[in-house]
Structure formats: C-alpha cells, structure tokens
Design goal:
Length: about 270
C-alpha cells in the first residue's frame, strides 16, 4: 500500500454496489482493500483499479458468515495505518416465509448483515477515532422501513443496520469525533442481488424504479461529504420512505395483508 493514499475497505466488492464503491473511491484517490468470496472477480477488479486510477488494491477473500474469515478482516482493519473508510456492503436476500424456509439462510444472513457489520465497524472505529478522521458507510435498504411477508430476516437485519448506525452517529457526535457514519438505504438497484432471487426487473413498475449502482454510490458519497446520516437515493424512494415514516402501523399492515395477490405470490418459498 502507498502510505500517501487513504485506504478504503469495501465488503461485498466483487459486483454491484460494492464494485461501484471501489471504482468511485479509486477515482477519488483511495487505495482499496476488496473483500468478498469470489477471488477471480476481486482480482479482475483490482487490475482495473490499478490500470485506470493507479490504485493499489489488497484482495481479501472472505466469507463473512465464517468466523475465521471475519476475524481476518477485523485484524486487517485494526492494523491498517492508512485506513480512512469502511463500507459494510456485503449482504444477500432470501425468499419465502421465515417458518417455511431453511434456517441456514436466515442464520447466515444475520451473521453477515448484523454480526459482521458489528465486528468490522468496531475494529474500524477504534482505528479511525484514534486517528481523528475517516468514515463508515453501512449499506442498509429501503426495506429497513417496511416489513413485507416473505422478507422477515432481510427487513429485520437491515432495520438493525439503520438503528445501529444512528446510535453510532450520536455517540461520535457526543464524543466530538470528526469520524462520520452513514446508513445508505437504496431501493431496487441494478445488481446481481435481485437476479439471484429470480426477480424480473420488468415486473417492478416496468423498470422505472431501478437505479444504476453508480448513481446509488454517488448519492452516498455526496451525502457523506455533507454528513448526512440516512441517505435514500432517488426521489421515488425518498417519497416512499417519507410516507412509510408517517403512515400508522395498523394502516400499513392492512395494506400489506390485503394488497395484490401478486405481492404475496412473489414472496412464496421456492418460487423461481
């Protein structure tokens, strides 16, 4: 690593929002540590960052649901002298009602969304607060603001991410630390995430609600410069989240339970 350049660590960096963060940060003069399970993807991205922006990259192959892999990334964060930013982006979704779907998927989701975010953020903040600089971005979702049948674990873990980040924000402010934190809450984003779940983009408002990962990341980084705690990219999603925050819970539950049959069918387990 070049000590003259700040270091950003990005989890889930092999594709989608994570890869978009890596490119945007490399263009802004950062070196990168790329964390994900797919070594081939990480190496390709590292080569791209070097050739386009002369950014040095460390490839950390890790499954953050695995305790040993998680510990390695923690230790890297704790010992990185040039650390300036952590992006907790790694995550995935499952489909199907909680009590009808395999427990393993829910367990792994909580390990990645909650435990990994908790431990990596702790390691990063102990480093950053001591230096008196830097930032942490925790990627949540607009799903954090509304529970949908068939996405209980995803909703609850992403809601935890927003609450956790808000708590950190208040603690850092109370400690007069310049370190910034942000909860990024994107809606439908053009990545492999929804492809893995088998969701056809054309079925969601004809594709109008889908945003490029690059736009989501730009909104995040602009918000970070302003010190914005919650960043919701896109005017449609800002409107939706605003409505969800003021709508009485009983009314929201009625709408969700009595909405179109298509919504419920899309959340049934084992549907492709």
């Amino acid at each position: 690593m070049n000590d003259a350049r700040p270091l950003a660590v990005v989890t889930g960096a092999s594709s989608g929002i994570g890869a978009a963060y890596a490119r945007a940060l490399a263009a802004r003069g950062y070196d990168l540590a790329l964390v994900a399970r797919r070594e081939d993807r990480l190496k390709q991205l590292a080569q791209e960052l070097e050739s386009r922006w002369h950014a040095n990259s460390t490839v950390l192959v890790a499954d953050l649901a695995n305790a040993a892999d998680l510990l390695r990334v923690e230790e890297f964060l704790a010992g990185a002298k040039s650390l300036a930013m952590l992006v907790n982006n790694a995550g995935f979704g499952t489909r199907g009602r909680f009590f009808e779907s395999p427990l393993a998927g829910h367990d792994a989701m909580h390990r990645v969304h909650v435990l990994a975010t908790l431990r990596l953020t702790h390691a990063a903040l102990r480093n950053l607060v001591a230096q008196g600089r830097g930032s942490v971005v925790n990627v949540a979702s607009v799903a954090a603001f509304v529970a949908l049948p068939g996405s209980t674990s995803y909703y609850s873990t992403k809601a935890w991410v927003t609450c956790f980040t808000e708590g950190l924000y208040l603690e850092l402010r109370s400690a007069c630390s310049p370190v910034r934190v942000q909860a990024l809450c994107p809606g439908f984003t053009v990545t492999e995430f929804h492809d893995v779940l088998g969701i056809d983009r054309k079925t969601v408002s004809g594709g109008a609600w889908w945003m490029p990962a690059e736009e989501v990341v730009e909104a995040s980084l602009k918000g970070l410069e302003k010190g914005t705690l919650f960043v919701v990219p896109g005017w449609r999603y800002k409107l939706v989240v605003g409505l969800l925050r003021i709508l009485p819970r009983r009314v929201l539950h009625f709408v969700l339970l009595n909405g179109p049959d298509r919504l419920r069918r899309e959340r049934r387990p084992n549907e492709s």
